[in-house]
Every structure is written in C-alpha cells, then in structure tokens.
Write a structure and sequence with these properties.
The protein has 505 residues and is an all-alpha fold. The chain has one domain. The protein is 74% helix and 1% strand. Strands 1-2 form a two-stranded antiparallel ribbon. Helix 5 crosses helix 7 and helix 13 runs antiparallel to helix 14. The longest helix has 34 residues. The protein is globular and about 65 Å long.
C-alpha cells in the first residue's frame, strides 16, 4: 500500500513538473508532428522521431525525451486519417484499422470511424500507461526470458492469424501469404550476405521497402479499381456530423470486452522486445476475428475491428516503454531511437534509472497522460476539416492520393525506381483483388517475413538445428500451440461450414 501511495505521489509531482509553458509546448509539438508524420504516406512515426532527434541536442533531457515520446504516442493515431478516408496506411500499424474503418467511411460514417479510432486510441493508451506506472518493473522481468524462439513463435502466430482475416478461401490466403513472404526475401540476406532475387540491380539489393508494398497494394490498387469503373463507385455520403463523431458511453460499454482483451494483448506484445505495435495491431484484430461476439461483421465496417486493432496498437506503446525504462532493452524501432536519446543526454536506461533519475521518469509518465488529453482535443477538432475533403470528386481525390503515394515512395530512398516499384505492387494488388485473392496476407508476409526468418535462423544456430526447442520453452510453446490451433481451425472451419450447408439443403 505504501508503495502504491509513493507511486501516485511521484506521478502527481511529475504531472505538476510538466505544467510549464515549455514542456506543454513540447507535448503539443510532439503530438502534431507524430500525427502528421503518421498520416503522410512515406513518413512514419519513426521517421518523425528521427527528424526531430537532432533538435533535441540543445534541450534539457526532460523536455527532449517528452517531445520524442509524444511523437511516438500520437503517431499511433495520426495514420488513422488516410487509412480510414483514403485507404492509405501511412504506417503498417494502421493496416488492420482500414479493414473496417474504410468500409465505414464508404457508408458515410467516416466521422464515426474516426471517433471510434480516437476513443480506442485514448482508452488503449490510458490502459497501458496506467499499467506502465504501476507494474512496469515486475512485467519487465518477464521480458528477460524472451529470446529468438519466443520471437519466432509470436511472429508465427501473427502469420497464422491472418488466415482468419477474410472470407477468401484458405488456399487463396496461403498463396497470398507465401507471395508476401517471398517478397520479404528480396535483397541481400542479412545473415549470410547472399543476393536473393536482386537480378543484379543495386536497388533490389537493398530489398523492397514494406511501405511500397503497403501503399501499392492498398492505395494504388484501389485507384486502379476506380479507374476501371470510370470513377463510378458510389460517392461517400457526407452525413456524418461532428456531434455524432464520438461514440456514446453505451456504445463503448458494449465493446468493453474487445477493448479490455485488445489492451491486455497489446501491452503484452509491446513489452516483448522486437514485437512492436504492428504485430499487436494484427494480433488484436485476429483475436477479435476468432472470439469476438460480432466477428462475422468484421471487415464490413464493424466498430469492433477498429477497437481491436487500434487499442492493441496504442497500448503497445506503453508496453514497449516497460523494458526500455526498467531493463534498458528497446522493445521497438521507436524505443531504440528513444534509448539513443537517453544515452545522448547521459542517462542510462535500466533498473538504476528509478534511483538516479526518478523525477525524469515520472515527468515522462505524466507527459503521456497530458499527451493523451491533448490528442482528444486535436482529434476531435480535426474531424470536420477532414470530412470536407471528401466533398471533392473521386477523380480529383484519386489524383491527389496518387501524387502523395508517388512522393511517399520517392521519399523512401530518393530513387525514382521506387515509384515504379510502387506501381508494380499496385498492379499486383489490383490483380489479386480482381481474382478474389486477399491482399492482407501478402502485406503481413512482407512486413513480418524478415523478423520470422532472422528469429528462426538465430534459433536454429543457437540450438544446433533443434526445432523442438520451440515446444520445450514454456513461452514459445504457448504461442506455437496457439498458432497450430489457428492453422487447424483454419483448415477445419471451411469443412464444417460446407457440411452445415449440406445438412440444411
């Protein structure tokens, strides 16, 4: 009880310390930068942190870290705008979000979809930050037991869960997933230095950036489909009003099981080093697709899909800060940059940070709460201006989107050939959709493929090619068994459905 009171007292002091003009300005700037960078194709929240990092050299440690963490947290929400309104996932985190957010926007419920996203972001963030404040040290101890077998098992579960994410046949889903994994192998093998599918081109030696795959398969393919229809797709019904943007308390309470389930999952995935918000978002959606009460409606504009992916993604931010602050282990790419910022200011993250820099840590905790409060205001005020964009003719918005996509592709490596690669994947996405092959498994394979390969090879090298280690270590065994159950269900479910239809007939 005394420890709990001490934590609350320290947190209160941290929030009070943040209530000065400079720190509040840093939180505001960080929130805006994070939201904008996540919303622009080709600029992710990690890009935002990297761009701002040089400006923190002349700042004091507290304001510098608070600025960067605000970008990290707000970035999980900013990418919702292009994902929901234009089907452009500016960051892999928001791929599952568009599966239900974009259909809602097409039904004239774009503001409602953004409102659900905002509520999911704030509630998921609150859950993880509260957990971070209260139980960060005990949870971080668990992360010490994770190594390559656990990483592979988690990624394998993420890959198998994608087989549930649509109504396509299992065969088509497997083909799409295999194609995505194949794309992820393009380039120089990081482990052995061997060229794979590079065709003697310097560009492909660097691999295919997953953002090119994301933007091409989703955004460019959508534009090609609209061109085929002569931009005759039904226009968005701008019936959404700001007053109906945020869901009611009753609507939120109906989705509380989804929120609680996804927040726990996201926090857990977040504090596993190397997992990150992307895996959390996919797993959150995949779990909801399997156990949710309204799972049959997912993919058609169900708020459960938005809540499941967004709450998991945002809660993973707090989870990723747990091993960073208490063990000095970055849990994601963003926290790796944050760790560099700590070291830049002479602060060593780890168990001793609470003794040596206690006020700084609780000031960071307090800034996370303030950032969430600020995001409510920014998110709410931005809905009406964004909805006016949809009044433009589809040909105009499609042209604008295509230009943004091309700029984003070029910005990746300042190479015009990346733009051609973007169009290649746009054509791939269009063909797959045309012939009823799901594109989501391809995207997930391209994103998680490198992590799956590296963790599996590391496991085989470390344990002398003994694959049974995946089932003998407790944590990896749990995830592997869940993944195998997912595969089994994916195989048996269509058989049971056909049998049920035969009985009805």
């Amino acid at each position: 009880m005394n420890t709990f009171i001490q934590i609350l007292s320290s947190l209160g002091q941290g929030i009070i310390a943040d209530l000065n003009l400079v720190t509040l300005l840093m939180i505001l700037v960080g929130a805006l930068v994070g939201m904008i960078c996540a919303a622009v194709p080709g600029l992710t929240l990690i890009t935002g942190i990297i761009l701002v990092l040089p400006f923190t050299y002349v700042m004091d440690a507290t304001n510098a870290i608070i600025l960067l963490t605000a970008i990290y947290l707000a970035g999980t929400y900013g990418g919702a705008f292009p994902a929901i309104l234009f089907k452009i996932p500016g960051d892999p985190i928001h791929v599952p979000l568009l599966w239900d957010g974009y259909p809602m926007a097409r039904l004239g419920l774009g503001a409602k979809a953004l409102g659900w996203t905002l509520v999911s972001t704030i509630s998921g963030g609150l859950f993880a930050v509260i957990l971070l404040v209260l139980v960060s040290a005990p949870l971080a101890v668990v992360a010490l037991k994770f190594s390559s077998p656990e990483y592979f098992a988690i990624v394998f579960l993420g890959l198998t869960s994608v087989l549930f994410l649509g109504d396509a046949s299992l065969r088509h889903s497997i083909v799409s997933l295999a194609l995505g994994l194949l794309i992820s192998t393009i380039g120089v093998d990081a482990m052995f230095g061997v060229d794979r599918f590079t065709f003697n081109t310097d560009l492909l030696r660097g691999g295919v950036d997953y953002l090119n795959v994301l933007i091409g398969v989703y955004a460019v393919a959508e534009i090609l489909a609209r061109m085929e229809q002569g931009f005759a797709a039904p226009s968005l019904k701008l019936v959404s009003k700001v007053k109906t943007t945020l869901p009611s308390f009753k609507e939120f309470s109906n989705l509380f099981p989804t929120y609680f389930r996804s927040s726990i999952l996201g926090t857990f995935i977040g504090f596993v080093p190397g997992a990150g918000a992307t895996i959390a978002a996919f797993l959150g959606y995949g779990v909801e697709k399997q156990v949710g009460k309204n799972r049959k409606q997912l993919g058609e504009g169900a708020p459960e899909g938005i809540m499941a992916s967004q709450a998991a993604a945002t809660s993973s931010v707090g989870g990723a800060l747990i091993p960073l602050l208490t063990l000095g282990i970055p849990g994601s790419g963003a926290t790796a940059i944050l760790m560099g910022a700590f070291l830049l200011h002479g602060i060593q993250p780890g168990p001793g940070i609470f003794m040596n820099n206690g006020p700084l840590i609780y000031a960071i905790y307090g800034s996370l709460f303030l950032c969430l409060a600020l995001m409510i205001i920014l998110g709410f005020l931005s809905v009406r201006p964004l909805m006016t964009i949809l009044k433009a003719p589809e040909a105009v918005t499609s042209s604008f989107i295509l230009v943004l996509c091309m700029l984003g592709a070029y910005a990746l490596r300042s190479n015009i050939q990346d733009v051609w690669i973007l169009f290649v994947f746009g054509l791939v996405g269009y063909v797959l959709t045309r012939y009823n092959y799901p594109t989501t498994p391809l995207v997930l394979g391209a994103i998680l493929g490198p992590l799956a390969e590296s963790s599996f090879l590391t496991t085989m090298i470390s344990f002398h090619n003994d694959w049974t280690v995946l089932f003998t270590r407790p944590v990896s065994a749990v995830f592997m068994i869940l993944a195998l159950i997912s595969l089994l269900v994916a195989v048996l479910l269509p058989v049971l459905k056909r049998k049920k239809e035969l009985i009805k007939n």
